[in-house]
Amino acid sequence: MANILIVDDEFDILDYLADKVRQTGHRVETAVDGVDALLKVIQDPDLEVVVMDIRMPRLDGMDALRILKEMNPEMPVIMFTGQAGRGDMALSVQLGAYTCMAKPISSEKLLETIKTVLSTKI
Prior knowledge:
Strand order of the largest sheet: 2-1-3-4-5
Number of domains: 1
Oligomer: single chain
Largest sheet: 5 strands, parallel
């Protein structure tokens, strides 16, 4: 199974998504902001997919996405946000995200998207 990094500053959402992804057999790492996420990506070259919130403290998801895509343009990133009307969803895809989902996230939709991302990776 795949190695997935899930990033969100809301611990209840982070724990919920991590548990759902783990239940499908994937290995899951977690991070609470963009800085933590970038450090985990650097430290763990086996990470295959990043699932990341946009609005977070220290370094938000959009800035982390920009940096991550500079470091590793091939890394699939699935973004999500509770601020769906702000234009962030489209911008994140323009910056290289595979897709951006609105909160509340359906675990079934997330798992299906992860499965699709993994099946299309070279």
